[in-house]
């Protein structure tokens, strides 16, 4: 039984990283209070202040290498490719940063007329002038006036389109997972590195203040040797089935062959088009959608990026609606530094989600599912052999940002501004953003390894020297 005493004094911890919102190291207080009086600074205020800080830094930097060399006062011209549901979020995020970061969405690109026209209307509202509209990314990439591209198309197209954009010399913000076909992901990464581009991969939690605080805490060594990380993110419902767009989309209003991209031809299927997350040729489902976020945080917190090996199991147990991808999924991944990660999602039950980083000196709890800002540190205080009553002596402290006196929520939406702001800043400074293609490649490898293990039923091993994975272990 895991027990601990919650009444301990606050512990001050110095924020070691300079990659966060303020440029000075800032103290992070770990408090114990369970009551939630009115908050002095809400999260949105904090984030928008942070964005303003970044804006100042961005506008004072100059670009050292750039396709169209940007002066400090040049507006960054963006093209947004893939204007669906996530696309609307990203349009909103960009619009909130447009004046502080001097950017404009001056073109949009979507295969499907319906979403393309919606994006034109939305961005006209945001900028008081109409963006140019393209159906095909090739035409958009040929435009010299476009500085950078945002990609929020379906999972299977991220790497191929990222490579095309990189070959055209554009900086890119690409949604997660960075890729789900190994050779395509590798080719995209290499093209970005070769062309020295600034590419941000869309695991936005890396740019959120509570995640940065938790990351720095783990990096401080306060947990001792971490041997196990457990992540459970649940949801009750036939997730990704029944999207209303499925009834709207017509083959003659889009370009089905371009949607298929590198996949073998199959007849037009509106469910595949809109509910791609359920079909294994296009997405792995739970790993691509959710585990990519979770494992990316693990890689970053632990500074260990490629699993040594991975196994997975699961199936369609909750929603027998024609889906191919699992609705109940569990993976185990071993990492070179010597710890095991357990990732689990069920769509058939809403039992509360959590993540715990389990070290010999302390546990870092994260209450809630993807991106929850609520973290708590619980001391271990030694072994049961040292003290049979050890569990009565454990103390706990919540992770709070400087100036915060109340607990953060146990969830967060996908609309935080920090990740996009960081990309804009890096486009001007030519520094690398919070989630580079190397890190995007690493989360993609982890997701591809568990997916291969799930479908093949065979444990997968990573070979770092050849950068490949297979079911042949080191002994073979
Ligand atoms: N970071 C996050 O928190 C987050 C949240 C939600 C979704 N996402 C990611 O966003 C991506 C898109 O998800 P969605 O729900 O918006 O999908 P969606 O189906 O709503 O939108 C995809 C859009 O891309 C268009 N499209 C498809 N192929 C194209 C191509 N080759 N060129 C141009 N347009 C093309 C479609 O017509 C559609 O309008 C997914 O990969 C998902 O992982 C990320």
Descriptive report:
This protein is 32% helix and 21% strand. With 476 residues, it is α/β, with parallel strands linked by helices. Strands 1-2-18-17-16-15-9-13-12-11-19-20 form a 12-stranded mixed β-sheet. Helix 2 (85-101) packs parallel to helix 3 (113-127) and helix 6 (182-194) packs antiparallel against helix 13. It is globular. The two termini are 41 Å apart. Bound molecules: nicotinamide-adenine-dinucleotide. Residues 81-87, 109-112, 115, 137, 152-155, 157, 175-176, 202, 204, 254, 258-259, 274, 289, 414 line the site of nicotinamide-adenine-dinucleotide (NAD).
Tertiary shape? globular
The chain-level mean pLDDT equals 88
Total helical elements? 13
Strand content: 15-25%
Distance between the termini: 41 Å
Instruction: Return residue spans where pLDDT drops below 50 for at least 5 consecutive residues.
Output: 1-67
The computed structural class is: alpha/beta
Strand order of the largest sheet: 1-2-18-17-16-15-9-13-12-11-19-20
Which molecules are bound besides the chains? nicotinamide-adenine-dinucleotide
Helix content: 25-40%
Task: Report the sheet with the most strands, covering strand number, pairing sense and barrel closure.
Answer: 12 strands, mixed
Number of E-state strands: 20
């Amino acid at each position: 039984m895991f027990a601990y005493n919650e009444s301990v004094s606050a512990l001050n911890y110095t924020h070691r990283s300079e990659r966060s919102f303020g440029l000075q190291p800032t103290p992070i207080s770990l408090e114990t209070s369970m009551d939630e009086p009115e908050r002095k600074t809400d999260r949105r205020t904090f984030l928008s202040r942070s964005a303003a800080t970044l804006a100042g830094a961005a506008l004072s930097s100059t670009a050292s290498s750039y396709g169209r060399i940007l002066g400090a006062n040049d507006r960054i011209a963006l093209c947004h490719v893939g204007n669906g549901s996530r696309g609307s979020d990203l349009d909103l995020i960009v619009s909130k940063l447009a004046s502080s970061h001097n950017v404009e969405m001056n073109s949009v690109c979507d295969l499907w007329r319906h979403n393309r026209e919606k994006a034109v209307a939305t961005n006209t509202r945001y900028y008081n002038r109409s963006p140019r509209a393209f159906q095909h990314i090739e035409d958009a990439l040929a435009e010299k006036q476009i500085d950078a591209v945002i990609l929020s198309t379906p999972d299977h197209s991220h790497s191929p389109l990222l490579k095309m954009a990189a070959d055209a010399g554009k900086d890119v913000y690409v949604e997660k997972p960075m890729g789900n076909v190994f050779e395509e992901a590798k080719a995209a990464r290499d093209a970005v590195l070769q062309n020295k581009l600034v590419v941000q991969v869309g695991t936005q939690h890396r740019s959120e203040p509570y995640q940065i605080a938790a990351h720095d805490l783990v990096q401080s060594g306060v947990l001792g040797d971490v041997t196990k990380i457990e992540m459970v993110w649940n949801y009750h419902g036939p997730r990704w089935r029944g999207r209303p767009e499925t009834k709207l989309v017509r083959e003659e209003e889009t370009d089905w062959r371009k949607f298929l991209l590198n996949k073998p031809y199959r007849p037009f299927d509106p469910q595949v088009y809109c509910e791609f997350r359920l079909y294994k040729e296009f997405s792995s489902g739970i790993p691509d959608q959710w585990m990519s976020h979770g494992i990316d945080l693990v890689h970053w917190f632990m500074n260990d990026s490629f699993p040594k090996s991975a196994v997975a199991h699961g199936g369609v147990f909750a929603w027998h609606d024609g889906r191919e991808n699992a609705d109940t999924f569990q993976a185990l991944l071993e990492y070179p530094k010597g710890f095991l990660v357990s990732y689990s999602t069920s769509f058939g039950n809403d039992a509360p989600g959590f993540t715990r980083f389990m070290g010999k000196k302390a546990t870092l709890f994260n209450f809630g599912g993807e991106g929850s800002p609520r973290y708590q540190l619980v001391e271990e205080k030694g072994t049961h052999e040292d003290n049979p009553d050890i569990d009565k002596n454990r103390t706990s402290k919540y992770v709070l940002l400087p100036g915060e006196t109340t607990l953060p929520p146990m969830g967060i939406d996908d609309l935080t501004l920090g990740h996009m702001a960081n990309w804009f800043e890096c486009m001007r400074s030519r520094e690398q953003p919070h989630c580079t293609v190397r890190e995007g490649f690493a989360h993609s490898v982890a997701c591809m390894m568990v997916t291969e293990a799930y479908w093949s039923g065979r444990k997968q091993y990573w070979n770092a020297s050849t950068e490949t994975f297979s079911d042949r272990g080191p002994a073979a």
